[in-house]
Amino acid sequence: MPSIKKIQVTFDCAEPERVARFWCEVLGYVLPPLPDESDEFSTWEDYRNSLPPEEQGVWCACVDPAGEGPRLYFQRVPEGKAAKNRVHVDVRVAYELAGEERLAALEAECARLVRLGGAHVETLYDGNDACIVMQDVEGNEFCLT
Description:
This protein is an alpha/beta fold.
């Protein structure tokens, strides 16, 4: 059996495009190219507006422009978030640093993401290692490490 080379991480959410755009900013991702069958449209907004109302805004995706990271897929679901995530994303911004230098790098990234609509939940720091727990624009937990 061949090994799996690519994965997609799927988020359930209320506003797929809003959450996708947040994660594009967090990771330096972009919206993917328009589907092949949409060659008469120049933007995702034009394409989505051409769909039947019940299909508009039900999903959005973002991709690593270098093609290395996983595709992120955001799908609208009717129910709200009810509990802590069982799986979460770790955004590794300072993994090669330690101590105060690591903490400062994480705090700087946390401040940037808060300005984008994320929320700081908790900073964990033991004098050497650090991690900042955050939430995205819909309350999904993730960590800066």
